[in-house]
Every structure is written in structure tokens, then in C-alpha cells.
Design goal:
Layout: H1 2-19, E1 26-28, H2 41-46, E2 56-61, H3 63-70, H4 73-92, H5 110-126, H6 132-147, H7 152-163, H8 168-203, H9 214-223, H10 228-236, E3 239-244, H11 254-272, H12 277-295, H13 307-341, E4 354-355, H14 369-401, H15 410-419
Helix pairs in contact: 3-13, 4-9, 4-13, 5-8, 5-11, 5-12, 8-11, 9-13, 11-12, 13-14
Length: 420
């Protein structure tokens, strides 16, 4: 009923805006995880009513998924290109039959099976810290949860029956053991997504671009006889505003997340093989060391996370990945136009990121003018530092060719124009 009312409301708002020629942008405060009403943003865009498809949208990226979606530049790029591709496809396909959707049964890949088995082996090496019999009982319980469907009305009974005689400390150790397994499995899933997309990139070409990618969207326009000028108009109408929020915040410590990533990188390296005995042994020992550190460190701080912590964690999770992924998306757009339309284009920015963390007056008494000032200064400082890093790299590159540079090259003209 709620989805029906939202759909009806969007249609009515769009009718009013279109009647009076008012430019508008729908703002969706979508939940982050599927359990909170979230899910894939590109699917949400494609499911909007035709009247709402004007290329402009804003949506929240909840604190609980920011690290998942933007912690890696390759994951961030894939997430953003799916959103941009969906907007292009939706505008091209407007007032036509809805795009077909496909659903496939999801089976674990061999890579995920190997990663999962290795994680279990690592945890068994490190141990849960429980007495042997209780550890065996815990692992049997975990295997039962993973391998068999559980009826909601029986899950509570199973938990009570399994842990009813256990002490608080033993239950805490069990929760840490189970939590560590699933956090590492979640990181393994991210690595698998990166691997699958890299594999699709290798297999894709002009005739068969990767699904939900920028090239596939531009090819879709060309295939539907959209002229070059119309295609540019469609792109110019696209304006996507992801908005970062802190609630619900990512509660895990950044140091734990970092160690989980490092551990899975080692696991992937070991599983790929082709290692000397010495190197393999060194990596396996490092994996055990990291696993011990993760197991013996609390996932959540002993004190409440401050607003400054939320600000720093959000920026730390996004700044590096967005710095590279957004520029790569721009390159993909321009190169795809050249590939499918044989025309060069210079496009305006399609993405504009917003950050509510440290500025959202939602009743949190700890967010005041000083905190907002801190958030602004922190963002500006980080962005300036990224420019300095790129300038240092540019200086290293250009210094090699300085004596041979042409005086009338594009970069020199741009610098002269900026200085004048």
C-alpha cells in the first residue's frame, strides 16, 4: 500500500510540475539496505513512472552502506555507472514499453566457495576461545543456519536450545566468531563483484558492451535511432545528486574494516596460487595474524561515536574512490559517444554529491554551528589536498618533457589563460 501511495503521489506532483512547466527534482530518502527499503538505485530509477523521468533525481546514501558502495573506487564506479546508465536508458525509453527485467537463480561461484572455506579454516586456526565441545556445537549451529532453510517461528527456539546453558562471556565469544565470519564473507562478496566486473570488462566490446554500463546506454540510444543532438540533449538533462547521511551510521571501527580488506586481499592472493613456498607461508601467517587481531578487537567502540567521527569516517570512505571513479565515468561517456556516434563531445558534470553529515539539523543536539563549520573545513581541506597530490603527479610527469614541450600545446594555453 505504501509503494502504491508513493507512486500515486509522484504522478500527481509530476502532473502539476509539467502543467506549469516547472523544472523539478524528486528526492528519494531511500533506505540503505534492502531490509530498510533500499536496494539497487538503478532499478529504482527504471521503475519510476514515465511522467517522473526528467533525468533529475536526488537520493540518500545511508551511513550503513556508504563504505560498502564507496569504500572501493571500482565498486563506486560500478554503482555510479549503473545509475547514470539507468537515467540514460529511462530517458531514451520514455513513453515506450517498459524495459524487460531479468532474474536468474543465484548460485555461489567457485571463487566464493573457496574464499568461504578459507575463511572458515582461518577462524578454526584462530579459534573462538570456547571449550572444545561448545566450539563444535557453535560450528554445527552455524552450518545448520547456512545450509538449511530456517522457519521464523523456530529460529528463536533453536537459539534458546543451543545457548541456554552458556555464560554471557561464552555467548559474547560466539557472537564475535559468527560476526567475524559474516563480515569477512561480506568483504569476500565485494571482491567477487570487482572480479566479475573486471571479467565482464575483458569480455565486452563495441557490439557487446557490459550490461548496465555507460557504453551499453549510449549503444541503446544509437540502436533506438536517437540522433547525436538528441543524445546530447538527453545527457544534458541528467542531473544525479547522491546525498550522504550518517543515520544509521557505520558502527564498525575503520581499523577493523581496513584489516578485513587486507585479510581478503591476502586470501585472494593465496587462492590464486603460483606462489613460492616461502611467500605462501609468509602470507598465510600474516592472514592468521590479521584474523587474530580482528577476533580480539571489538567491532564497536566502547564509547559512543561522535559527530566528528561520523564526518571523518564518511569522508574517509568516499573521497579517494570518488576522486577517481567520477573522472573515469566522464571518460567512459565521452569515449562511448566517439565509439557509437563518431563524434567528440564535452559534457557537463552529471553527478553532484551532497553531504549531510555534520550539517543535518535532525534533532541531534550535538550538531551545531561549530560542528558544521568543522565539516565544511574538513571537506575543503581534503579536496585541496587531492588537488595538490594531482599537481605533484603532473609536475613529475611534465618535468620529464619540459625542455621538449611545444609552446602552443593545449595545457600551456590553458595555464596561460588561467594566469592572465
Amino acid at each position: 500500500m505504501a509503494n502504491y501511495c508513493l507512486n500515486k503521489c509522484q504522478l500527481e506532483v509530476s502532473d502539476i510540475m509539467n502543467e506549469y512547466n516547472i523544472d523539478f527534482r524528486l528526492f528519494h530518502g531511500r533506505g540503505g539496505s534492502i531490509s530498510r527499503g533500499g536496494g539497487k538505485s538503478n532499478k529504482a530509477i527504471l521503475s519510476l513512472p514515465d511522467k517522473c523521468q526528467n533525468g533529475k533525481i536526488r537520493f540518500t546514501e545511508q551511513g550503513e552502506v556508504i563504505n560498502y558502495r564507496y569504500g572501493s573506487s571500482r565498486i563506486a564506479k560500478r554503482h555510479l555507472e549503473q545509475i547514470v546508465s539507468a537515467q540514460i536508458t529511462a530517458l531514451t525509453n520514455k513513453n515506450k514499453a517498459k524495459i524487460r527485467t531479468f532474474a536468474k537463480d543465484c548460485d555461489l561461484s567457485n571463487n566464493m566457495i573457496e574464499r568461504s572455506s578459507y575463511i572458515v579454516k582461518l577462524l578454526e586456526t584462530v579459534s573462538s576461545g570456547l571449550p572444545k565441545k561448545k566450539h563444535e556445537k557453535l560450528t554445527r549451529f552455524m552450518c545448520g543456519m547456512i545450509s538449511k532453510p530456517i522457519k521464523n517461528n523456530s529460529l528463536g527456539d533453536q537459539i534458546i536450545e543451543t545457548f541456554k546453558d552458556w555464560s554471557i562471556e561464552e555467548i559474547s565469544r560466539s557472537m564475535k566468531y559468527i560476526g567475524t565470519y559474516f563480515h569477512l564473507l561480506n568483504q569476500a562478496e565485494l571482491n567477487e563483484i570487482i572480479y566479475i566486473n573486471e571479467k565482464r570488462d575483458i569480455l565486452s566490446d563495441k557490439d557487446n558492451p557490459k550490461v548496465d554500463s555507460i557504453p551499453s546506454a549510449i549503444k541503446f540510444m544509437r540502436k533506438n535511432s536517437v540522433s547525436f543532438n538528441k543524445a546530447k540533449e538527453i545527457i544534458s538533462n541528467i542531473s544525479i545528486h547522491p546525498t550522504f547521511t550518517a543515520h544509521p551510521t557505520e558502527t564498525r571501527r575503520p581499523s577493523i574494516i581496513k584489516k578485513q580488506r587486507m585479510l581478503l586481499q591476502i586470501v585472494d592472493t593465496v587462492l590464486k596460487g603460483n606462489l613460492s613456498h616461502t611467500k605462501r607461508s609468509r602470507l598465510e601467517n600474516e592472514a592468521i595474524r590479521l584474523c587474530r587481531l580482528i577476533m580480539f578487537t571489538g567491532d564497536v567502540r566502547s564509547h559512543d561515536i561522535s559527530v566528528k567521527d561520523e564526518i571523518n569516517n564518511t569522508l574517509k570512505s568516499t573521497i579517494n574512490s570518488l576522486w577517481y571513479s567520477v573522472s573515469e565515468l566522464s571518460y567512459d561517456l565521452e569515449s562511448s559517444f566517439e565509439q557509437y556516434y563518431k563524434e567528440e563531445v564535452q559534457l557537463d558534470d552529471l553527478l553532484s554529491f551532497h553531504n549531510w553529515v555534520g550539517g543535518d539539523r535532525d534533532g541531534n543536539p550535538n550538531v551545531d554551528s561549530e560542528i558544521t563549520k568543522y565539516a565544511l573545513k574538513k571537506q575543503v581541506s581534503l579536496v585541496i589536498n587531492k588537488y595538490f597530490e594531482d599537481l605533484d603527479q603532473l609536475f613529475d610527469d611534465m618535468s620529464i618533457y619540459k625542455d621538449f614541450a611545444e609552446s602552443n600545446n593545449t595545457l600551456s594555453k590553458s595555464i596561460e589563460s588561467d594566469l592572465s
